[in-house]
């Protein structure tokens, strides 16, 4: 089974979704399961994991409703207040929906030091007791802080979204590479190969711009801890779904079938217990 481990749905609202600036007009509209279904079919993708794009429990409920109504949505990564005093009670309630697989916070928008707050770390630790995963959404400037965060969570299943957003458009690779290798040394941490073309020049990127970053991620995490993801519909800022599939297909064309199967689906199935 081929799984897209990272995509989003939303009903666009200019206030709630203020991060979608006028520079991003192509995604200033609704994106729903009926929009994604044919795209997955055209690209031989069997299912997906829907990931939160808004910091609210309403967002989690919206994604779970989408998943309940569409079998191709195999799992949901939602949002919950990991610093809430009643977090344990909320997590008990979450267990009622089997498609809820984990949680994410948009840390890339938070000030330095956010990940190292004691209450936040304790909240993520609690996820382990309920067998939930945690997606780490950061910019590459936050890699050192993220490493400290990871070191406090040796038992928690963690995954880096979008390869920690290297600045491909400026060809910055050295510091990011060092940070990603340190993080990958932790066996409980996985990495999504997603969102990379939107970190390149949206209008002038090519495969050669992307491959050095894929080399580093593959070498660091190995064949069992990397997952395919599209970051649809955000990917539309720099290309389309099929073009990203082509980039990744070309990169992996000389790898053996076992590695390809793990990357395209098996690793996602195992990580998220799909």
Summed up:
With 274 residues, the chain is α/β, with parallel strands linked by helices. The chain is 39% helix and 14% strand.
Describe the secondary-structure layout.
Elements lengths: L2 E5 L25 H10 L4 E5 L5 H13 L3 E6 L8 H8 L5 E6 L12 H12 L3 E4 L6 H9 L6 E3 L13 H11 L4 E5 L13 H15 L4 E3 L12 H12 L4 H16 L2
Parallel strand pairs: 1-2, 2-3, 3-4, 4-5, 5-6, 6-7, 7-8
Describe what this molecule looks like in 3D:
By secondary structure, this protein is α/β, with parallel strands linked by helices. It has a single domain (3-272), classed as Alpha-Beta Barrel (TIM Barrel), CATH 3.20.20.140. Helices cover 39% and strands 14% of the residues. The chain contains nine helices and eight strands. It has helices at 33-42, 57-69, 87-94, 118-129, 143-151, 174-184, 207-221, 241-252, 257-272, and strands at residues 3-7, 47-51, 73-78, 100-105, 133-136, 158-160, 189-193, 226-228. The chain has an eight-stranded parallel beta sheet. The protein is globular. The N and C termini lie close together (11 Å). The mean pLDDT is 97.
């Amino acid at each position: 089974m081929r799984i897209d481990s990272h995509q989003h749905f939303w009903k666009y609202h200019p206030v709630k979704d203020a991060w979608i600036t006028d520079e991003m007009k192509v995604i200033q509209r609704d994106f729903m399961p009926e929009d994604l279904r044919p795209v997955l079919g055209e690209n031989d993708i069997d299912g997906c994991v829907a990931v939160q794009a808004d910091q609210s429990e309403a967002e989690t409920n919206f994604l779970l409703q989408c998943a309940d109504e569409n079998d191709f949505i195999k799992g949901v990564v939602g949002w919950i207040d990991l610093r809430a005093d009643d977090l344990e009670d909320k997590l008990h309630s979450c267990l009622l929906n089997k498609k809820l697989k984990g949680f994410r916070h948009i840390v890339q928008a938070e000030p330095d030091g956010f990940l190292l707050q004691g209450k936040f770390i304790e909240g993520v630790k609690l996820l382990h007791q309920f067998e939930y995963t945690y997606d780490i959404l950061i910019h590459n400037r936050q890699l050192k802080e993220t490493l400290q965060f990871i070191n406090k969570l040796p038992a928690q299943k963690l995954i880096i979204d979008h390869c920690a957003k290297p600045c491909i458009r400026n060809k910055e690779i050295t510091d990011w590479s060092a940070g990603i290798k340190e993080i990958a040394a932790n066996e409980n941490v996985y990495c999504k190969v997603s969102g990379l073309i939107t970190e390149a020049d949206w209008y002038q990127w090519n495969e050669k711009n992307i491959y050095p970053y894929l080399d580093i991620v593959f070498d660091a995490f190995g064949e069992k801890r990397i997952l395919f993801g599209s970051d649809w519909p955000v990917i539309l800022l720099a290309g389309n779904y099929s073009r990203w599939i082509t980039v990744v297909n070309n990169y992996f064309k000389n790898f053996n079938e076992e590695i390809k199967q793990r990357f395209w689906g098996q690793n996602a199935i195992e990580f998220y217990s799909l």
